[in-house]
Amino acid sequence: MAEILDMIELIQFPWSPFCIVQRRILEFAGVKFKTTNLPPQTRDLVWKITKQKYYGVPTLRDGTKIIFDDTDDQQIVAKYLDAKLKLGLFPADREGVQSLLWRHIESEVEGAAFRLNDSQYRDFVKPAEQLQYLRFKERKFGRGCIDQWRRDEKLWLQKLTAALTPYEQMLAHSEFLLGERPLFVDFDLFGMLENFLFSENYELPKARPHLRDWHARMKTVRR
Ligand SMILES: N[C@@H](CCC(=O)N[C@@H](CS)C(=O)NCC(=O)O)C(=O)O
Prior knowledge:
Layout: H1 2-6, E1 8-12, H2 17-29, E2 33-37, H3 44-49, E3 59-62, E4 65-68, H4 76-85, H5 95-118, H6 127-141, H7 145-151, H8 153-171, H9 184-197, H10 209-220
Parallel strand pairs: 1-2
Antiparallel strand pairs: 1-3, 3-4
Helix pairs in contact: 2-4, 2-9, 5-8, 5-9, 8-10
The chain binds glutathione.
């Protein structure tokens, strides 16, 4: 029982790109952790434990500490895990280049990835939750957004492939993006791509072979 209480809790929904980043970092670290799944449109638990400061995911509970990232570019959650678990994912001499890369990953890659995955939502959102999911998306991105993304599938796949070009080029020369061990940006890119793959209706572009090999490595890499 004490062990369960000591465990870090990741509050998430399973296909959220930003949650997958933190989940894979926790797996990489090899620590026991607990995941609590929320329906994406219901954030009461997060609202409550953050004392009405945040409703997003991922949110972590670590004993009495609640950790969340209410910025677009600070990586508060990953930096917390990195410091606590001594993972070395943010070496000082790579901070500049990583911060440029994660901005690109979380805009260009994420923008195409989540639209393609969301366009398949009927395949992974429970029927009883589909109406609320659609409404949640349409309120954020406009009426008919998901139908439009489905119609524009080819275009979004092209955009995703194009956004992945620099990563393919980097991975032609090293096992991980910035060298021979994974850094934060590897987990960040992995999270966005796992979101893209979540519906199981897509695969990584064949024209990005180094990225495909890296993706297989990222699935299981341990510190
Ligand atoms: N910078 C944050 C971004 C988190 C984020 O955008 N989460 C999405 C889900 S993938 C979210 O909860 N957005 C608020 C909403 O959906 O209402 C982080 O890295 O944790």
